[in-house]
From TrEMBL, chain A:
Keywords: Cell membrane, Endoplasmic reticulum, ER-Golgi transport, Golgi apparatus, Membrane, Postsynaptic cell membrane, Synapse, Transport. The lineage of its organism: Eukaryota, Metazoa, Chordata, Craniata, Vertebrata. This is Trafficking protein particle complex subunit. Part of the multisubunit transport protein particle (TRAPP) complex. Component of the multisubunit TRAPP (transport protein particle) complex, which includes at least TRAPPC2, TRAPPC2L, TRAPPC3, TRAPPC3L, TRAPPC4, TRAPPC5, TRAPPC8, TRAPPC9, TRAPPC10, TRAPPC11 and TRAPPC12. Interacts with SDC2. It comes from Phascolarctos cinereus. One of its GO terms (cellular component) is endoplasmic reticulum. Core component of the TRAPP complexes which has a function of guanine nucleotide exchange factor activity for Rab1 GTPase. Plays a role in vesicular transport from endoplasmic reticulum to Golgi and autophagy. May play a role in dendrite postsynaptic membrane trafficking. Belongs to the TRAPP small subunits family. TRAPPC4 subfamily.
TrEMBL record, chain B:
It is found in: Endoplasmic reticulum; Golgi apparatus, cis-Golgi network. The lineage of its organism: Eukaryota, Metazoa, Chordata, Craniata, Vertebrata. This is Trafficking protein particle complex subunit. The gene is TRAPPC1. InterPro entries: Longin-like_dom_sf, TRAPPC. Part of the multisubunit transport protein particle (TRAPP) complex. The heterodimer TRAPPC6B-TRAPPC3 interacts with TRAPPC1 likely providing a core for TRAPP complex formation. One of its GO terms (biological process) is endoplasmic reticulum to Golgi vesicle-mediated transport. It comes from the Eukaryota. One of its GO terms (cellular component) is endoplasmic reticulum. Keywords: Endoplasmic reticulum, ER-Golgi transport, Golgi apparatus, Transport. Pfam families: Sybindin (PF04099). Its main location: endoplasmic reticulum.
Protein backbone atom coordinates (compact mmCIF):
# COMPACT_ATOMS: atom_id res chain seq x y z
CA UNK A 1 0.00 0.00 0.00
CA UNK A 2 1.53 3.26 -0.99
CA UNK A 3 -1.17 5.88 -1.49
CA UNK A 4 -1.39 7.84 1.73
CA UNK A 5 -4.32 10.20 1.29
CA UNK A 6 -6.62 12.03 -1.08
CA UNK A 7 -7.84 15.63 -0.80
CA UNK A 8 -10.42 17.41 -2.95
CA UNK A 9 -10.24 21.21 -2.78
CA UNK A 10 -12.93 23.44 -4.31
CA UNK A 11 -12.16 26.52 -6.37
CA UNK A 12 -12.25 28.78 -3.32
CA UNK A 13 -9.65 26.72 -1.48
CA UNK A 14 -12.08 24.91 0.80
CA UNK A 15 -11.58 21.25 1.56
CA UNK A 16 -14.63 19.33 0.36
CA UNK A 17 -13.37 15.78 0.71
CA UNK A 18 -10.55 14.01 2.48
CA UNK A 19 -9.65 10.36 2.78
CA UNK A 20 -6.77 8.79 4.71
CA UNK A 21 -6.08 5.63 2.79
CA UNK A 22 -3.00 4.38 4.57
CA UNK A 23 -1.06 5.75 7.51
CA UNK A 24 2.27 4.10 8.25
CA UNK A 25 2.63 3.43 11.95
CA UNK A 26 5.65 5.17 13.40
CA UNK A 27 5.27 4.59 17.10
CA UNK A 28 7.62 3.86 19.94
CA UNK A 29 6.68 2.59 23.37
CA UNK A 30 9.05 2.79 26.29
CA UNK A 31 8.96 2.40 30.04
CA UNK A 32 10.26 5.35 32.01
CA UNK A 33 11.28 5.83 35.62
CA UNK A 34 11.08 9.10 37.52
CA UNK A 35 12.16 11.74 36.59
CA UNK A 36 11.14 11.61 32.92
CA UNK A 37 14.20 12.26 30.75
CA UNK A 38 12.15 13.90 28.00
CA UNK A 39 10.91 17.45 27.96
CA UNK A 40 7.20 17.54 27.10
CA UNK A 41 5.23 20.63 26.20
CA UNK A 42 1.65 21.47 25.48
CA UNK A 43 1.09 22.58 21.90
CA UNK A 44 -2.30 22.95 20.19
CA UNK A 45 -4.00 20.95 22.95
CA UNK A 46 -1.56 18.09 22.50
CA UNK A 47 1.37 16.88 24.57
CA UNK A 48 4.45 16.89 22.33
CA UNK A 49 8.09 16.00 22.85
CA UNK A 50 10.05 19.26 22.91
CA UNK A 51 13.51 17.94 23.72
CA UNK A 52 15.28 14.64 24.33
CA UNK A 53 15.08 12.68 21.10
CA UNK A 54 15.95 8.98 21.71
CA UNK A 55 15.07 5.36 20.85
CA UNK A 56 12.73 6.21 17.98
CA UNK A 57 11.00 8.96 19.97
CA UNK A 58 11.44 12.14 17.94
CA UNK A 59 10.95 15.79 18.76
CA UNK A 60 7.41 16.67 17.68
CA UNK A 61 5.95 13.26 18.51
CA UNK A 62 2.83 13.24 20.62
CA UNK A 63 1.96 11.15 23.67
CA UNK A 64 -0.49 8.56 22.30
CA UNK A 65 -1.07 6.39 25.36
CA UNK A 66 0.07 5.97 28.94
CA UNK A 67 0.17 2.45 30.42
CA UNK A 68 -2.02 1.28 27.54
CA UNK A 69 -4.69 3.93 28.20
CA UNK A 70 -5.24 6.17 25.17
CA UNK A 71 -4.59 9.88 25.38
CA UNK A 72 -6.99 12.38 23.80
CA UNK A 73 -5.42 15.81 23.58
CA UNK A 74 -4.05 16.72 26.98
CA UNK A 75 -6.21 14.26 28.93
CA UNK A 76 -6.04 10.48 29.19
CA UNK A 77 -9.15 8.43 28.42
CA UNK A 78 -9.86 8.16 32.16
CA UNK A 79 -9.79 11.94 32.59
CA UNK A 80 -6.35 12.59 34.07
CA UNK A 81 -4.25 15.47 32.81
CA UNK A 82 -1.16 14.05 31.08
CA UNK A 83 1.46 16.55 32.23
CA UNK A 84 0.21 16.46 35.82
CA UNK A 85 0.14 12.65 35.84
CA UNK A 86 3.68 12.40 34.48
CA UNK A 87 4.94 15.00 36.93
CA UNK A 88 3.97 12.85 39.89
CA UNK A 89 6.72 10.47 41.06
CA UNK A 90 4.17 8.09 42.59
CA UNK A 91 2.90 7.08 39.14
CA UNK A 92 6.26 5.69 37.98
CA UNK A 93 7.45 3.44 36.39
CA UNK A 94 5.19 4.35 33.52
CA UNK A 95 4.99 3.06 29.98
CA UNK A 96 4.36 5.75 27.36
CA UNK A 97 3.66 5.29 23.67
CA UNK A 98 4.81 8.10 21.34
CA UNK A 99 4.05 8.66 17.68
CA UNK A 100 3.52 11.29 15.02
CA UNK A 101 0.42 13.29 15.89
CA UNK A 102 -2.51 12.63 13.53
CA UNK A 103 -3.89 15.62 11.64
CA UNK A 104 -7.12 16.94 13.06
CA UNK A 105 -9.90 17.89 10.66
CA UNK A 106 -9.21 21.56 11.39
CA UNK A 107 -5.58 21.13 10.41
CA UNK A 108 -6.63 19.37 7.22
CA UNK A 109 -8.87 22.29 6.28
CA UNK A 110 -6.03 24.68 6.97
CA UNK A 111 -3.50 22.66 4.96
CA UNK A 112 -5.88 22.40 2.02
CA UNK A 113 -6.33 26.15 1.78
CA UNK A 114 -2.62 26.62 2.32
CA UNK A 115 -1.94 24.41 -0.69
CA UNK A 116 -4.47 26.42 -2.67
CA UNK A 117 -2.37 29.56 -2.14
CA UNK A 118 0.95 27.81 -2.75
CA UNK A 119 -0.47 26.55 -6.02
CA UNK A 120 -1.26 30.10 -7.11
CA UNK A 121 2.11 31.51 -6.01
CA UNK A 122 3.91 28.67 -7.82
CA UNK A 123 2.37 29.80 -11.06
CA UNK A 124 3.04 33.49 -10.38
CA UNK A 125 6.76 32.93 -9.77
CA UNK A 126 7.18 30.92 -12.94
CA UNK A 127 10.16 31.84 -15.14
CA UNK A 128 8.29 30.49 -18.17
CA UNK A 129 5.12 31.74 -19.82
CA UNK A 130 1.81 29.99 -19.32
CA UNK A 131 2.73 27.88 -16.32
CA UNK A 132 0.14 26.03 -14.24
CA UNK A 133 0.42 25.83 -10.47
CA UNK A 134 2.20 23.06 -8.55
CA UNK A 135 1.50 19.71 -10.20
CA UNK A 136 3.91 17.56 -8.27
CA UNK A 137 5.72 18.26 -5.04
CA UNK A 138 8.53 15.98 -3.99
CA UNK A 139 9.93 15.29 -0.54
CA UNK A 140 12.03 12.43 0.75
CA UNK A 141 9.06 10.67 2.33
CA UNK A 142 6.17 11.33 -0.05
CA UNK A 143 5.16 12.90 -3.33
CA UNK A 144 2.14 15.16 -3.61
CA UNK A 145 0.38 15.09 -6.97
CA UNK A 146 -2.21 17.68 -7.86
CA UNK A 147 -4.59 17.87 -10.78
CA UNK A 148 -6.66 21.01 -11.32
CA UNK A 149 -9.70 20.68 -13.53
CA UNK A 150 -10.85 23.40 -15.93
CA UNK A 151 -13.52 24.36 -13.43
CA UNK A 152 -10.93 24.95 -10.72
CA UNK A 153 -11.39 21.92 -8.51
CA UNK A 154 -8.13 20.43 -7.30
CA UNK A 155 -7.60 16.74 -6.68
CA UNK A 156 -4.58 16.09 -4.51
CA UNK A 157 -3.05 12.67 -3.88
CA UNK A 158 -0.26 11.98 -1.41
CA UNK A 159 1.67 8.86 -2.31
CA UNK A 160 4.91 7.05 -1.73
CA UNK A 161 7.72 8.54 -3.89
CA UNK A 162 8.05 5.23 -5.75
CA UNK A 163 4.34 4.78 -6.49
CA UNK A 164 3.61 5.08 -10.19
CA UNK A 165 0.42 5.69 -12.16
CA UNK A 166 -0.79 8.64 -10.09
CA UNK A 167 -1.57 10.81 -13.13
CA UNK A 168 -4.11 8.32 -14.41
CA UNK A 169 -5.46 7.89 -10.88
CA UNK A 170 -6.10 11.66 -10.64
CA UNK A 171 -8.08 11.59 -13.88
CA UNK A 172 -9.95 8.55 -12.61
CA UNK A 173 -10.84 10.42 -9.40
CA UNK A 174 -12.12 13.31 -11.53
CA UNK A 175 -14.27 10.83 -13.41
CA UNK A 176 -15.59 9.35 -10.17
CA UNK A 177 -16.29 12.87 -8.89
CA UNK A 178 -18.23 13.71 -12.05
CA UNK A 179 -20.16 10.45 -12.00
CA UNK A 180 -21.00 10.06 -8.34
CA UNK A 181 -20.88 13.55 -6.82
CA UNK A 182 -21.91 15.89 -9.62
CA UNK A 183 -24.62 13.60 -10.97
CA UNK A 184 -26.03 13.04 -7.50
CA UNK A 185 -29.15 15.24 -7.27
CA UNK A 186 -28.63 15.71 -3.54
CA UNK A 187 -25.10 17.05 -3.95
CA UNK A 188 -24.68 20.82 -4.00
CA UNK A 189 -21.67 22.25 -5.80
CA UNK A 190 -18.64 23.41 -3.81
CA UNK A 191 -19.99 21.74 -0.67
CA UNK A 192 -18.45 18.81 1.20
CA UNK A 193 -18.94 15.53 -0.67
CA UNK A 194 -21.02 13.08 1.31
CA UNK A 195 -21.95 10.47 -1.27
CA UNK A 196 -21.70 6.79 -0.49
CA UNK A 197 -21.07 5.78 -4.09
CA UNK A 198 -18.28 8.33 -4.39
CA UNK A 199 -16.62 6.83 -1.31
CA UNK A 200 -16.95 3.27 -2.54
CA UNK A 201 -15.67 3.94 -6.03
CA UNK A 202 -12.81 6.10 -4.82
CA UNK A 203 -11.61 3.35 -2.48
CA UNK A 204 -11.86 0.87 -5.33
CA UNK A 205 -9.84 3.14 -7.64
CA UNK A 206 -7.14 3.58 -4.98
CA UNK A 207 -6.88 -0.18 -4.54
CA UNK A 208 -6.52 -0.70 -8.27
CA UNK A 209 -3.94 2.08 -8.58
CA UNK A 210 -1.88 0.68 -5.73
CA UNK A 211 -1.78 -2.75 -7.35
CA UNK A 212 -1.05 -1.36 -10.82
CA UNK A 213 1.72 1.01 -9.65
CA UNK A 214 4.82 -1.09 -10.10
CA UNK A 215 6.84 -0.18 -7.03
CA UNK A 216 5.06 -0.28 -3.70
CA UNK A 217 7.01 -0.15 -0.43
CA UNK A 218 6.38 -3.87 -0.04
CA UNK A 219 7.96 -4.84 -3.35
CA UNK B 1 17.18 21.28 -20.95
CA UNK B 2 17.59 24.68 -19.41
CA UNK B 3 18.40 26.50 -16.22
CA UNK B 4 16.08 29.46 -15.72
CA UNK B 5 17.28 31.17 -12.56
CA UNK B 6 18.82 30.75 -9.15
CA UNK B 7 18.08 32.23 -5.74
CA UNK B 8 20.25 32.04 -2.66
CA UNK B 9 18.65 32.90 0.67
CA UNK B 10 20.10 33.04 4.15
CA UNK B 11 18.36 31.86 7.31
CA UNK B 12 16.61 35.19 7.82
CA UNK B 13 15.12 35.30 4.34
CA UNK B 14 17.58 37.82 2.91
CA UNK B 15 18.21 37.14 -0.77
CA UNK B 16 22.01 36.77 -0.87
CA UNK B 17 22.23 36.27 -4.58
CA UNK B 18 20.02 36.11 -7.62
CA UNK B 19 20.96 35.34 -11.19
CA UNK B 20 19.00 34.34 -14.24
CA UNK B 21 19.90 32.71 -17.54
CA UNK B 22 16.95 31.74 -19.67
CA UNK B 23 14.04 33.47 -18.06
CA UNK B 24 11.18 34.24 -20.41
CA UNK B 25 8.69 35.69 -17.96
CA UNK B 26 9.20 38.12 -15.10
CA UNK B 27 6.90 37.93 -12.11
CA UNK B 28 5.58 41.44 -12.81
CA UNK B 29 6.58 42.77 -9.39
CA UNK B 30 9.78 44.51 -8.22
CA UNK B 31 12.70 42.13 -7.64
CA UNK B 32 12.75 42.75 -3.89
CA UNK B 33 9.07 41.79 -3.71
CA UNK B 34 9.71 38.73 -5.80
CA UNK B 35 12.44 37.52 -3.41
CA UNK B 36 10.08 37.97 -0.49
CA UNK B 37 7.33 36.11 -2.28
CA UNK B 38 9.67 33.26 -3.19
CA UNK B 39 11.05 33.02 0.34
CA UNK B 40 7.54 33.16 1.78
CA UNK B 41 6.38 30.41 -0.51
CA UNK B 42 9.31 28.17 0.42
CA UNK B 43 8.80 28.89 4.10
CA UNK B 44 5.15 27.88 3.81
CA UNK B 45 5.93 24.81 1.73
CA UNK B 46 8.37 23.69 4.40
CA UNK B 47 5.82 23.89 7.17
CA UNK B 48 3.10 22.46 4.91
CA UNK B 49 5.24 19.47 4.01
CA UNK B 50 6.31 18.75 7.57
CA UNK B 51 2.66 18.68 8.66
CA UNK B 52 1.47 16.63 5.70
CA UNK B 53 4.17 13.98 5.89
CA UNK B 54 2.86 10.61 7.09
CA UNK B 55 6.27 9.70 8.58
CA UNK B 56 9.19 11.64 10.04
CA UNK B 57 11.27 13.37 7.42
CA UNK B 58 15.03 13.70 6.93
CA UNK B 59 15.67 16.10 4.07
CA UNK B 60 12.11 17.35 3.77
CA UNK B 61 11.08 19.32 0.72
CA UNK B 62 13.19 18.57 -2.38
CA UNK B 63 11.46 19.90 -5.48
CA UNK B 64 8.17 20.79 -7.09
CA UNK B 65 7.11 21.04 -10.68
CA UNK B 66 4.38 22.76 -12.62
CA UNK B 67 3.47 22.24 -16.26
CA UNK B 68 6.36 24.47 -17.38
CA UNK B 69 9.19 24.47 -14.85
CA UNK B 70 10.72 22.61 -11.94
CA UNK B 71 11.95 24.21 -8.74
CA UNK B 72 14.79 22.45 -6.93
CA UNK B 73 15.39 23.22 -3.28
CA UNK B 74 18.32 22.54 -1.02
CA UNK B 75 18.69 23.69 2.55
CA UNK B 76 21.76 23.42 4.75
CA UNK B 77 21.54 22.80 8.51
CA UNK B 78 22.45 26.47 9.01
CA UNK B 79 19.38 27.55 7.06
CA UNK B 80 21.03 28.72 3.83
CA UNK B 81 18.65 27.89 0.98
CA UNK B 82 19.65 27.30 -2.61
CA UNK B 83 16.80 27.37 -5.11
CA UNK B 84 17.19 26.63 -8.80
CA UNK B 85 14.48 26.73 -11.43
CA UNK B 86 15.02 24.49 -14.43
CA UNK B 87 12.82 22.97 -17.07
CA UNK B 88 11.00 19.69 -16.49
CA UNK B 89 13.62 17.37 -17.97
CA UNK B 90 16.12 17.84 -15.16
CA UNK B 91 16.31 15.05 -12.56
CA UNK B 92 17.44 15.33 -8.94
CA UNK B 93 20.25 17.92 -8.68
CA UNK B 94 20.92 17.88 -4.94
CA UNK B 95 24.66 17.47 -5.54
CA UNK B 96 24.73 20.51 -7.84
CA UNK B 97 22.95 22.70 -5.29
CA UNK B 98 25.18 21.33 -2.56
CA UNK B 99 28.23 22.26 -4.63
CA UNK B 100 26.93 25.80 -5.10
CA UNK B 101 26.75 26.05 -1.33
CA UNK B 102 29.91 24.25 -0.26
CA UNK B 103 32.18 24.84 -3.24
CA UNK B 104 31.21 28.41 -4.07
CA UNK B 105 29.31 30.16 -1.28
CA UNK B 106 31.37 28.80 1.61
CA UNK B 107 34.69 29.05 -0.22
CA UNK B 108 34.25 32.49 -1.80
CA UNK B 109 31.87 34.31 0.53
CA UNK B 110 31.93 32.80 4.01
CA UNK B 111 35.73 32.46 3.99
CA UNK B 112 36.19 35.93 2.51
CA UNK B 113 36.66 38.45 5.35
CA UNK B 114 35.65 41.30 3.02
CA UNK B 115 32.17 39.82 2.42
CA UNK B 116 29.81 40.72 5.24
CA UNK B 117 27.30 37.94 5.90
CA UNK B 118 23.57 38.52 5.96
CA UNK B 119 23.39 40.85 2.97
CA UNK B 120 23.54 40.65 -0.82
CA UNK B 121 26.82 39.16 -1.99
CA UNK B 122 28.90 41.86 -3.73
CA UNK B 123 31.85 39.61 -4.61
CA UNK B 124 32.50 39.70 -8.34
CA UNK B 125 34.53 36.48 -8.05
CA UNK B 126 31.54 34.64 -6.57
CA UNK B 127 29.26 35.91 -9.31
CA UNK B 128 31.57 34.95 -12.15
CA UNK B 129 32.47 31.54 -10.71
CA UNK B 130 28.80 30.77 -10.10
CA UNK B 131 27.91 31.82 -13.61
CA UNK B 132 30.72 29.69 -15.06
CA UNK B 133 29.70 26.71 -12.93
CA UNK B 134 26.04 26.88 -13.93
CA UNK B 135 26.96 27.31 -17.60
CA UNK B 136 29.16 24.22 -17.40
CA UNK B 137 26.33 22.01 -16.08
CA UNK B 138 25.32 19.20 -18.44
CA UNK B 139 21.69 20.32 -18.40
CA UNK B 140 22.48 23.96 -19.15
CA UNK B 141 21.71 24.42 -22.82
CA UNK B 142 23.28 27.21 -24.82
CA UNK B 143 20.12 28.05 -26.73
CA UNK B 144 19.06 31.69 -26.53
CA UNK B 145 22.26 32.14 -24.45
Amino acid sequence: MAIFSVYVVNKAGGLIYQLDNYAPRAEAEKTFSYPLDLLLKLHDERVLVAFGQRDGIRVGHAVLSINGVDVNGKYTADGKEVLEYLGNAANYPVSIRFGRPRLTSNEKLMLASMFHSLFAIGSQLSPELGSSGIEMLETDTFKLHCFQTLTGIKFVVLADPRQGGIDSLLRKIYEIYSDFALKNPFYSLEMPIRCELFDQNLKLALEVAEKAGTFGPGS
Amino acid sequence: MTVHNLYLFDRDGVCLHYSEWHRKKQAGIPKEEEYKLMYGMLFSIRSFVSKMSPVDMKDGFLAFQTSRYKLHYYETPTGVKVVMNTDLGVGPIRDVLHHIYSGLYVELVVKNPLCPLGQTVQSELFRSRLDAYVRSLPFFSARAG
